[in-house]
């Protein structure tokens, strides 16, 4: 049998099949020695009794992310607050650069727009948000006010999730859980069924769950974060994969240009000519410094 791991609790994995059945499965020792299972893994398993089985194979992953620990993702919805907390571009840009190295599509979801409107930062932040759209990124802006416009925005986002494995992530307090509740409110019983199956006392979980929704929508809910490190990532990885940098690097004099110290750099020229927003480039330089100063761990 085949399926996708949607939740892991200690040594037990819960696998969703195409027939919409959830199986409680265990991983055999010889398989576990080869690779540790992750939420999102596509697996083969053998049935041992009613809705229980053993994993016999973990299929090759198309991608894998360490924060959160999840595999085989089509797109990530990065939830970012525009106010309370005030929009901060560095974490957002850092995450965009990171997931693009994994060849995962980012969707930028901006929340609490109704709070931003009332502040002196409205024009500055709005210009920054629109810059992502101008660079070709998909963006959704939520007012977080329960009205017709809010529901239209939620429905617009839902259309982007159909037939995809998506995970929602973002800084703590950005409104991720509030947004997710629009889609998950009718599906909590399924999750509670898994929790009831555990019934073995205290467990250590991955804190990553995939929810199976109608229209072949698979949504992974992940813990919020305040910061994260670029683990196992080099500046060359970003240079190869960045949608932003690759729009302008053809004008660089040197093929190995890193867009920091070089003269005749297409990226730096784009900043000077207002084709690339300066705030994104400044964040890229901070990311470069972070990677360059990273200590080697033994």
Automatic annotation (TrEMBL):
Pfam families: RsgA_GTPase, RsgA_N. Its main location: cytoplasm. Its cofactor is Zn(2+). One of several proteins that assist in the late maturation steps of the functional core of the 30S ribosomal subunit. Helps release RbfA from mature subunits. May play a role in the assembly of ribosomal proteins into the subunit. Circularly permuted GTPase that catalyzes slow GTP hydrolysis, GTPase activity is stimulated by the 30S ribosomal subunit. HAMAP family: GTPase_RsgA. Belongs to the TRAFAC class YlqF/YawG GTPase family. RsgA subfamily. This is Small ribosomal subunit biogenesis GTPase RsgA. It comes from Mesoplasma melaleucae. The gene is engC.
